[in-house]
Amino acid sequence: MNPSVSLGDVFLLLSQSYNMCPSSMHVIKENCKAAGLAVRGVPLYGKVKEVSLESVPFGCSLNVNDGREIIYNSFHGNNNGDYQPVCSTESFCPTLTPSVSPSDIPSMI
Q: What is the SS3 assignment for 37-72?
């Protein structure tokens, strides 16, 4: 995944029963704030809260019982039911490639 978030990136929230996003949908720490904002999360004091806790899902998530605060957990924890993992759908968006290359198009000159 790109280290920067573009306007075309799409994010989604998993249910509170998930412990993390699938690896292909993982949001890296540097993108967690933008991803959290995209799904209506709130960065407390303008920042992502970084933790290493057993009760929080790994990666980027929202604490749904604490004002939708954006959290990034570096520990592979088990969700205690208070968090929704924030995932990227970027890996599921197909890259469009033309079926005809520019050299195949006849010249109009």
A: HHCCCECHHHCCEEECCCCCECEEEEECCCCCEEEE
